[in-house]
Structure formats: structure tokens, C-alpha cells
């Protein structure tokens, strides 16, 4: 049996003395689209944050590529995050920098040279279909284009894992389909995408693993 790329084993997360996830297990393989769905407060973002090393479990184990990342030091967790493509709810585009400058940031953080970071950022923007907006400021983009720019920024370091929180929220159907098709193309190229979503938005024609989360009883 091969080791899953991502795995939670009997994880419990507690915020303010309240368990959000309790004894929760899941796993994801390479080249799989994982849909985490469930209502508000059910812990979808918390699962993404566990894999990114942004939240620590009170109990249980978190594995990425076989490594026990919940035991990582804060420096190791920073490197873990740099190796992943993150589209978290709080990770907005910086409003005072051009789109390409935003997309370059993770490449610069990964210690690429300025020239290489810019080249990769342009490739990522082109792959996401918005190369022509590279020099614009984020406010000049539509909601759909901003979301594509966030995806370009998430994939600039060619990650094996992309973690996305509500990727198509607030997008019209055409933009949602474009974004899902791009996520599907990354999955077909062998990337594992974990998507947290209120609704069942999945790309066509790729292996999908569905994980349904229930809000803790006190909230339901
Ligand atoms: N840093 C935190 N401190 C305290 N409580 C938190 C924190 N982060 C999340 N929570 C609580 O944990 C629960 C699960 O949050 P989480 O964001 O994982 O849910 P979600 O399923 O992603 O919700 P939504 O769909 O609304 O984004 C919520 O009740 C939330 O208020």
C-alpha cells in the first residue's frame, strides 16, 4: 500500500475549549481532488490549516508525504507552507502591488532570484489565462480575474499540493467553471487539490474524494 500524500489520523482540534474536529481521520493521494464540504463552522478551513501547519491538533497526527508535520518546528512549518499552493480565505492580493508582483511573492519567499520569480509568475499567469493583466493593480481586475490571480500565486512554485478555501464563492457560473477547469488540469498533472466548499463544486473528469464534515453538536 502506498503512503497517502496527505493524512489526518484521529485528529482533534480545540478552539476556546470547544472541539471543532473530534477524532477525525482522512487521507488524500497524489493526483486527487478532495472536496471537503459541510456547513459553516464544520471545520473545513481547519482541515486546510492543519495540512498547512497553521493550526496544531490537540490530539492526533498530521502527515504530509509521510512526514509528521504536527511535530515540525515553526521554521519547518514555514518551509512546508512554501512548498504548498495556498488559496486561503485570508490570503488576499496586496492592493498596492501589481498582479505580477503579487504572484511573484511566493517565489521570492522560496529564495528564487528576482528574474526567475518574475519568469515563473508570468508563466503561472499565462497558465491561468490572465497574462494580459500582469501589470495591472488588483482593483482593476474583476472578481473572477482576481481569483485566477490568487490561483496563479498559489501555483507559482509548482506545488504538489494546492489547498483552496471556497474557490468559487462569489463567482458567476462562467468564472466558476474556468477556475474549476484549471484546478482539474492541475489534478490531471498529478497535483493533489484539497478544496473546502459549502457546495459540491468539483472539476469534471478527475478522481474526486468527498469528505463531508458535520458541525459540532453544540452548533447544530
Ligand atoms: N482561531 C480560532 N479561534 C477560535 N475559534 C476558531 C478559530 N478558527 C476557527 N474557529 C471556530 O472553529 C469552527 C470551525 O471553523 P472553520 O473555519 O474550520 O469552519 P468552516 O467549515 O471552514 O466554516 P466556514 O464555511 O464558515 O468557513 C468555527 O466555529 C469557528 O468559529
Automatic annotation (TrEMBL):
One of its GO terms (biological process) is cell division. GO terms for cellular component: plasma membrane. InterPro entries: AAA+_ATPase (IPR003593), ABC_transporter-like_ATP-bd (IPR003439), ABC_transporter-like_CS (IPR017871), ABC_transpr_LolD-like (IPR015854), P-loop_NTPase (IPR027417). It holds the Pfam family ABC_tran. Keywords: ATP-binding, Cell cycle, Cell division, Cell membrane, Membrane, Nucleotide-binding. Residues 6-219 form the ABC transporter domain. One of its GO terms (molecular function) is ATP hydrolysis activity. Belongs to the ABC transporter superfamily. This is Putative cell division ATP-binding protein FtsE. The lineage of its organism: Bacteria, Pseudomonadati, Pseudomonadota, Betaproteobacteria, Burkholderiales.
Amino acid at each position: 500500500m502506498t503512503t497517502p500524500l496527505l493524512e489526518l489520523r484521529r485528529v482533534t482540534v480545540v478552539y476556546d475549549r470547544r472541539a471543532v474536529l473530534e477524532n477525525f481521520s482522512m487521507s488524500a493521494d497524489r493526483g486527487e481532488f478532495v472536496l471537503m464540504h459541510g456547513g459553516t463552522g464544520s471545520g473545513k478551513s481547519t482541515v486546510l490549516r492543519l495540512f498547512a501547519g497553521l493550526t496544531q491538533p490537540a490530539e492526533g497526527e498530521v502527515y504530509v508525504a509521510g512526514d509528521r508535520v504536527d511535530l515540525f518546528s515553526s521554521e519547518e512549518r514555514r518551509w512546508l507552507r512554501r512548498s504548498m499552493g495556498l488559496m486561503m480565505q485570508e490570503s488576499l492580493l496586496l492592493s498596492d502591488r501589481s498582479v505580477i508582483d503579487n504572484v511573484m511573492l511566493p517565489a521570492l519567499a522560496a529564495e528564487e532570484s528576482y528574474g526567475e520569480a518574475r519568469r515563473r509568475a508570468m508563466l503561472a499567469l499565462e497558465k491561468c489565462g490572465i497574462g494580459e493583466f500582469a501589470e495591472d493593480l488588483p482593483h482593476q481586475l474583476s472578481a473572477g480575474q482576481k481569483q485566477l490571480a490568487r490561483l496563479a500565486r498559489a501555483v507559482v512554485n509548482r506545488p504538489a499540493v494546492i489547498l483552496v478555501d471556497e474557490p468559487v464563492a462569489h463567482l458567476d457560473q462562467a468564472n466558476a467553471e474556468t477556475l474549476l477547469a484549471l484546478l482539474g488540469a492541475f489534478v490531471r498533472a498529478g497535483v493533489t487539490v484539497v478544496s473546502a466548499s459549502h457546495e459540491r463544486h468539483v472539476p469534471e473528469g478527475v478522481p474526486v474524494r468527498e469528505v463531508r464534515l458535520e458541525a459540532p453538536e453544540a452548533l447544530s
